[in-house]
Amino acid sequence: MLADDETAPGEEVPIMSKPLTIADLKTRARRRVPKMFFDYADSGSWTEETYRANEEDFAKVKLRQRVLVDMTNRSLATTMVGQETSMPVALAPTGLCGMQHADGEMLAAKAAEEFGVPFTLSTMSICSIEDVASVTSKPFWFQLYVMKDRDFINNLIDRAKAANCSALMLTLDLQILGQRHKDLRNGLSAPPKWTVHHGIQLATKPFWCMDMLRTKRRGFGNIVGHAKNVSDLSSLSSWTAEQFDPQLSWKDVAWIKERWGGKLILKGILDEEDARAAAESGADAIVVSNHGGRQLDGALSSISMLPRIVDAVGDKIEVHFDGGIRSGQDVLKAVALGARGTYIGRPYLYGLGAMGKAGVTTALEIIRKEMDVTMALCGKRDIHTVDRSVIAETRF
Q: CATH code at 290?
């Protein structure tokens, strides 16, 4: 039996019930996706203080309303690391994306390509680099976790090159894993250890299950069959527990930059000192990010650190932003505070979980419309002219 606003695979969403906000998509995804996988995407570490702050601190940034200005011929088009984008938004790398919806990474990549924004594939994706390349015609980006097995890393980089990925994103803030209580309580592991509780969860999500039964992609496509001694899901757990490299250093960044040879983005910068070091590393961009509140709980929100990091690096390196975006207005605020581009993770995952590829497109449409209207009401017509002048000084 369908939930109140759940749709069958391929079914059109009635016009009257079409989601209007990212929160609407979140509600639908919660109803359609098994709890353990929904919680994986929608959780932070420890008390989730930083996860909440990422969202809540956007409300503290106020905008200046302007009137009697020309609001015609508006444009959100820009570039991120030299790549043209229809708006300053890219889809962030997210692990287990293919557990929100069958073939999730492939569907999201297709939606992003059609919308004219970059898609970033995670090392810990369900669909492989080759899977995503098979359904896209334009280059996508690949996100790299550095493992102790350097042969595996070399192979991953070579596979990304072979797939014509146009940028490599190196994640810096996952040398060790932050404790995420929801995942532990849900018994989520790699591979999953199925229990009666899990079976009950799946039984209440029949359409999710039907989609999963139609695909062969239910493992970690970039790892199984590629990493040493990882031939199936049963051998994956011990490998992942041992492989994240706690000794990752700036020397490794230099090695990866040379090995890759293309555009390099460093994700996970949340401190001015680290930002200055990144600007000297030869990378093309940094992403101000606290891993969506999934690593160091008690850290400052991404949006509160963005202007400080922008001031610290000046024009030495392109600054991108990640964390807490739930609307197009949030994107505009990040751009106003100095971000050249932004990343959405949970918003597109909610869309994917709720409605598949159409849901990702809906999430992007929501973000674009909200950003466009907000920009106009702030008296701007071109995203390149949006700066701190649109931020209001609050006095109460």
A: 3.20.20.70
